[in-house]
Design goal:
Layout (H helix, E strand, L loop, with lengths): L6 H4 L14 E3 L11 H10 L4 E3 L4 H10 L6 H6 L4 E7 L6 E7 L8 H4 L4 H4 L6 H4 L1 H10 L5 E5 L2 E3 L12 H4 L8 H4 L1 E11 L6 E11 L5 H10 L7 H4 L2 H16 L1
Antiparallel strand pairs: 1-5, 2-4, 3-4, 3-8, 5-7, 6-7, 7-8
Length: about 260
């Protein structure tokens, strides 16, 4: 199975609401990263937001291993400049069973700040996600513990944003950010954001690499099937998750647009 490199091709593989799940698919090496990268956009993304690069002393060797895998001189920051995806590295510290974030090179975050997450274990990293501890944490821990070098796994998700910018750091309450959205204009004012995520273990250092490819499109640009799926999914988000995503502020407009689009 493969994962595409656009919102329209990713959404059919994403969770359509309901209980949280990892939803992993196994990827071939050729499908690991986006084949074409806008290097100018990557450089501008990091130049505009240098705090997106956060490094601990533990990340040097894994970062250099990753850069070498990608044919790049340097370490984690240089590797992230050469690919479309944002890059995060996680390892276990001696005497610990948990995986911690030891390095992040993130130009286009989805509502998170690497400086607030660096050094944290997985469960703390995901703490804001409603339902993670109850529904996903144990499964994710098992997956990380048993992941071997070689196999590559991918998954994708979706968010609704009030901006089409790749860097999404909401700075207003949802009721304010989505105040202008109506069922009539939702196709142009709601933006569907999908993260194409992959996981693999580096063979030499044993660190786990987590990549995040960002894709954004106006709701109205998507296929009718994907618009209909989002209209259904926004009604079935896990309790609490919808509030975190700001769903109460845009759900009525998205559902109304989906109904109009299907008519």
């Amino acid at each position: 199975m493969t994962l595409g490199f656009s919102v329209d091709t990713l959404l059919p593989k994403a969770r359509g609401g309901g209980q949280l799940r990892m939803g992993l698919v196994k990827l071939e090496e050729r499908d690991w990263l986006q084949p074409a990268t806008d290097l100018t956009a990557r450089a501008a993304g990091f130049a505009d937001w240098p705090q997106g690069v956060q490094l601990t002393s533990e990340v040097d060797a894994p970062g250099r291993e990753l850069a070498s895998m990608l044919g790049v001189l340097g370490a984690l920051p240089e590797a992230a400049l050469a690919v479309h995806e944002d890059l995060c590295l996680l390892t276990q510290r001696p005497g610990e069973e948990v995986y911690r974030l030891i390095g992040a090179a993130v130009a286009w975050p989805s509502d998170w700040h690497p400086a607030e997450k660096i050094g944290l274990p997985l469960r703390a990293l995901h703490a804001p996600i409603a339902g993670y501890e109850e529904q996903l944490a144990s499964g994710v821990d098992r997956f990380m513990a048993t992941l071997r070098p070689g196999p590559i796994y991918g998954r994708c998700n979706w968010f609704i944003a009030a901006t089409g910018e790749r860097r999404w750091l909401p700075d207003r309450p949802p009721q304010e950010a989505f105040a202008h959205v109506t069922p009539e204009n939702a196709g142009e004012t709601l933006f569907v954001r999908s993260e194409r995520q992959t996981l693999r273990r580096l063979p030499q250092t044993g660190a786990i690499l987590f990549t995040i490819g960002i894709y954004v499109e106006p709701l109205g640009n998507l296929s009718p099937a994907n618009i209909a799926m989002l209209g259904r999914a926004v009604q079935t988000l896990v309790s609490g998750e919808g509030d975190r995503r700001g769903a109460p502020a845009y759900a009525e407009s998205l559902i109304g647009f989906a109904e109009r689009n299907a008519a």
